[in-house]
Amino acid sequence: MCGKFAAGHLTQREMLAILEHFLYGKVSPHLPESLPSSGYNISPTNRVGMVRWDGETAELTTARWQLRDPRSTKPVINSKIENVGFWQEYWDRGRCLVPAVGYYEWPKDQGHDCPVYISVKHNAPAMFFAGFYRTDDGNHSCTILTCKPSPQIAHIHNRMPVILTPGEIENWLSGVTTVQDAQQTMGTGYEGRFDYHTVKPIKRGADGESLIEPYTPPVQTGFDF
Asked: Fewer C-beta neighbours within 10 Å, C or N terminus of the chain?
């Protein structure tokens, strides 16, 4: 995963209603004081929507998308599902969800001028990435969990975010899903249901639904010497 996704423009109350549906009402009714970044150009260091498990219910809050672990010399935006050793503490007590509507990848053979927008075919207005979070001085930060790509989109990039199906959400958050089960099944629930297409180059500060519209790059017919 290259580090950019689309969150759309769902309000916190709309997101709360989605969570209540997926989690059968096991959601705290309190909304966070801070608002997450919205739109179609979410980048590392932005404050994103985040869901964590608090006792017996899920809590909707926000977090900085860039986690600083004392053991790492660099901030982390993605965490590999295979790297259990480094993330063991987070598997035990730091699981979260990051809501999105889709994400972007830049295929190596096409360069930065041809990003690909990837989403999944489903009925809900949002999907959820599995992630890890930590809290320092009352402030949350998070990463997005990644795995090997679905065969359907493996030609685009060699990693993908772990996208949870509705039936996986509560078990992931509450800790029921074991490491072994997660590595074997999570991220596979949408096989054959990915939707992807090339979009326009994403410029700094750009936003709006036009960023996720299909785009055909112009064909170069000649060269100037």
From this structure: C
**What are the phi and psi torsion angles at 170 (to 5°)?**
-65, -40
* Model confidence pLDDT, tens digit, residues 86-142: 999 999 999 999 999 999 999 977 666 789 999 999 989 999 999 999 999 999 999
For the record, the structure tokens of 118 come out as 């990837």
- Which SS3 state, helix, strand or coil, does residue 198 take? strand
The total number of residues written for the chain in this structure: 225
Beta strands in 106-168 (DSSP E): 116-120, 127-136, 139-147, 160-161, 163-164
DSSP 117: E
Token duo for residue 222: 């000649």
C-beta of residue 132 within 8 angstroms of C-beta of residue 172: no
Q: Is the dihedral of CA 46, 157, 74, 90 positive or negative?
A: positive
Domains and CATH numbers, the chain: 5-212 (3.90.1680.10)
Q: What is the DSSP string of 46-88?
A: SEEEEEEEETTEEEEEEEEE-B--TT-SS-BSEEETT-HHHHH
pLDDT digits over 71-82, tens only?
Answer: 999 999 999 999
Q: Which residues touch 166 (CB under 8 Å, ≥6 apart)? A: 22, 124
- As a whole number of angstroms, the distance between CA 211 and CA 205 comes to 11
Give residue-wise pLDDT tens across range 127-138: 999 999 999 999
Residue owning tokens 């739109």 = 39
